[in-house]
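Reading group handout, session on sequence-to-structure problems. Before we discuss, look at one worked example. The prompt was deliberately terse, the way you'd type it at a terminal:

> structure Sulfur-oxidizing protein SoxB

The input record follows.
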Amino acid sequence: MSLSKREFLQVLAAASVGGMGLQRYAWADSAAADKALYDVPQFGNVSLLHMTDCHAQLKPIYFREPSVNLGIGAMKNQRPHLVGEHLLKACGIQPGTASAHAFSYLDFDAAAKRYGKVGGFAHLSTLVKRMKASRPGALLLDGGDTWQGSATSLWTNAQDMVDACKLLGVDVMTGHWEFTYGMERVQQIIEKDFGNKLDFVAQNVKTADFGDPVFKPYVIREINGVPVAIIGQAFPYTPIANPRYMVADWSFGIQDDNLQKMVDEARGKGAKVVVVLSHNGMDVDIKMASRVRGVDAILGGHTHDGMPIPTMVENAGGKTIVTNAGSNGKFLGVLDFDVKDGKVRDFKYRLMPIFANILPADTEMEALITKIRAPYESRLNEVLARTDGTLYRRGNFNGTGDQLLLDAMMAVQDAPIAFSPGFRWGTSLLAGQDITREWLMDMTATTYSYATVTEMTGATIKTVLEDVADNLFNPDPYYQQGGDMVRVGGLQYQCDPTAKAGARITEMRLKGELLEADKKYKVAGWAPVAEEARSAGNKQIWEVVEPWLKDQKVLKPRALNEPGLQNVKPNQGLA
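And the output record:
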């Protein structure tokens, strides 16, 4: 990457966020950008590195952050529900800098071309090795959603990510989408691949019959003589958000009462630092931090919120640090504790973007990735079409990538209405780029991506939209499941996120006509959680979309179908 002197100074300004002392590089040339961004002085004597929600992205990617992330009730205008300039201002980040690009959607196309791709396990590995070298005994924690989200993870039954994480040096992890490979596969990996090298922890996963722990609830590791407890909190709503049959013998849930018992137990065994490795979602983590005492930090994931600074939450035992480390391999969190006389005296936290054009690739990891991908490269790289507009997914109501899927489903399956799940994973493409099979799989690769066509009454359609809206906008975080709103094609509607459950969705119209409650409508969709879907003989969603893309050849910019919003402005979660 070649930076002008002005751009390099912007990189330095961005790197100064979080206390990095970088002034000594102020007059260096662009070759020093690496050292400027990633030379983070050691602090304290206990260090934890945190990654989460990489969604099986082994190679560098583009990823656009959301322009809509609404906070409702007490969550309004609070982290993580800040977007664009509102987030930058709250976190002290200068617009136009590398950090502004990493943490916001602003000027996405231009900034992406300037700073290049982000993430990639080879580049992440370089930074992990540097941080571990400068912080003896540091642990690398993986918050989950690691084994799902790409073609190779699906085609290898997650083995590609298991091997990459072992080489990366992950010490402890928890999970969510990992469970969609099924109970047997998860346990097989933990027993045969991880062994005693990598701990999978989850205090809130029990057997459905007798309530016995399925996994270790926590581990205690000693760092520089300090016992540190890492307690796992897997995604509590796995059997609801994903197919129940995949985890039929296990129960989940938030279980903060049991979490309190685990905290007390770990403290009783001598732990001087207690950290929860969570896949709750940040709003849930903040509420949990207010209810459970004795937790020094919650390192969170699931909602893909890249938060440059931590949130401090008061509770009966003091204060708890709550962080969230973004997604798609874009970031590495570094939490340094200063522990003296058995107590945490101070801490520093940094969430560092992984710029693939600045951080060199680790040769050992790069070799593994090349080996993993070699059998699939021709399939991955096949060009299906070209896009004239930017394609992205992330956002509360719709993204141009999902709009593409909706348009394809309606056309191919001859349905006037289409639904696409509110998934937050999926990579971005810049205008003018080729749409390859790999990108299509980045948007659709799950173990249950069946394409469906269903007849629904107008009343049923309203119920579906109301249920998802309540999941997203319920004022109590413990009733939120962390995804975005179902994406809707063909149907226009109004949405009031501030209304009560069952009253948020109004004015549902198809071609200008109000939907009739008793009339049936043909609706296309994909990724059903119902068990019968796996034996219905339906095509996978990529089998529906791929021929359509090939016929299109060049895709014009997608016109987003989004609801009209009521009673939300002003809101700093809205661009």
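Points for discussion. First: Confidence is low (pLDDT under 50) at residues 1-30. Second: The chain is about 30% helix and 20% strand.
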